[in-house]
Amino acid sequence: MIKKYIYLSIIIIFLVAVCVWEEIAVNNYLEKIDDYASSLQTMVLNRQNIDSEEILLTIENMEEVWRQKEDTFCVIINHQQVEVIGIEIARLKASATNNDKKEFVLGLSAIRFFIDNINHIIGLSIQNLF
Amino acid sequence: MLTIIIRAVIIYLLLLILLRLMGKRQIAQMQPFELVLTLIIADLATIPMGELSVPLLDGVVPLLTLSVLHFVLTILTKKNTKLNHLISGKPIIVINPSGIDFEVLKQLKISVDDVFGAIRAKGFFKLEQVEYAIMETNGVINVMPKSDFSPVTNKDMKITQENEGIPVTLVSEGSMMKENLKVAGLTEKFVEEMLEKARIKKLKDCGVLTVDEQHNVYIQEKNKEFQFFKGDK
């Protein structure tokens, strides 16, 4: 019986650890990507040309952060939901290089929407419970 | 494809551990909530196994949560009879000395034919043979026959017979069961002597060797007839 209690404790500890880790991962990592998206939105707001060095560098940094954390997200979030953010970041880069502001803004909105979507799915809320 | 194989192995091992932790029960012996749990577990296990886009944790976490809940519920129901009755129900008498209790049948939503089937399964083909029939919490109907129809026992016949105790397996398919040797209070030497007596050259040729409290030995060489040696105790 004691053995069973030990196994039970291990399982409970594991479950708590997974919940905490998920919370940290989703909040911290997604926030970083959202911050990049938000700063990019501010940058392009009053510009006609978006193929600037500064914007491209920010996108690259954003992509790098995303690539580093993508594997972690795949452990906790459906891979298809993770994939769409990666695709949008890649498209963002292309639209900045092509100086396509309309596409760029749409891409940024899409990224923020997908991040918000993940937050809604993962986060604990009454809507999610029912 | 390799990922699916690895995922299947992980889920299989996890299920193996969890089902061992949940205890040994056949489907017919399960309480209703245990049956539901088994069905959910089977369903949960298949999702991350075949669907690569779903994280393995999406299957593992609910599986572990359900096993924790089941374990906690088992402990609580063992300690609290009222809770046990609330969750598993109570055994209910469907046949009493006055006959079938039709009110109870209505309450249990079972027919007279179901009761007949259940008592026939217990070897009684006439209702007048049955004193009591009780539906257990797992849905099985157990029958207590009237004393006129109870099987004759040694006690009825006033026959005294020594209790032989339960036989312990010392060798199974060529392997020595060392833990059982301790249970029987015997040593490997006893097994070797028995092998020699039965003219079995090697331990691996021995299919089965059991011994009871009187040291009666049943021994059988693989693909040969069994031998029985009366014990000295």
Question: What would you say this structure looks like, in words?
Answer:
The complex is a heterodimer of chains A (130) and B (233). Helices cover 87% and strands 0% of the residues of chain A. Chain A contains 5 helices and no strands. Chain A starts with a helix and ends with a helix. By secondary structure, chain B is of the alpha+beta class. Helices cover 45% and strands 17% of the residues of chain B. In chain B, the strands form 2 sheets. Chain B has a 5-stranded antiparallel sheet with strand order 6-5-7-8-9. In chain B, strands 2-1-3-4 form a 4-stranded antiparallel sheet. In chain B, helix 1 (2-22) runs antiparallel to helix 2 and helix 1 (2-22) packs parallel to helix 3 (56-79). The mean pLDDT of chain B is 87. The interface between A and B is medium-sized, with 15 and 15 residues.
> What is the SS-derived class of chain B?
alpha+beta
| Oligomeric composition of the shown chains | heterodimer
Helix content of chain B: 40-55%
Please count the helical segments of chain B: 8
Sum this structure up briefly.
Chain A is mostly helical and about 130 residues long. Chain A has helices at about 1-45, 55-75, 80-95, 100-120, 125-130.
Task: Name some characteristics of this structure.
heterodimer, A: 130 residues, mainly alpha, 5 helices, 0% strand, elongated, B: 233 residues, alpha+beta, 5-stranded antiparallel sheet, 4-stranded antiparallel sheet, 8 helices, flat
Layout: helices, strands, pairs:
The complex is a heterodimer of chains A (130) and B (233).
Chain A: H1 2-45, H2 53-76, H3 79-97, H4 101-122, H5 126-129
Chain B: H1 2-22, H2 32-50, H3 56-79, H4 81-88, E1 92-96, E2 99-100, H5 102-108, H6 112-121, E3 130-135, E4 141-145, E5 168-172, E6 175-176, H7 178-184, H8 188-197, E7 206-211, E8 217-221, E9 226-229
Antiparallel strand pairs in B: 1-2, 1-3, 3-4, 5-6, 5-7, 7-8, 8-9
Helix pairs in contact in B: 1-2, 1-3, 2-3, 3-4
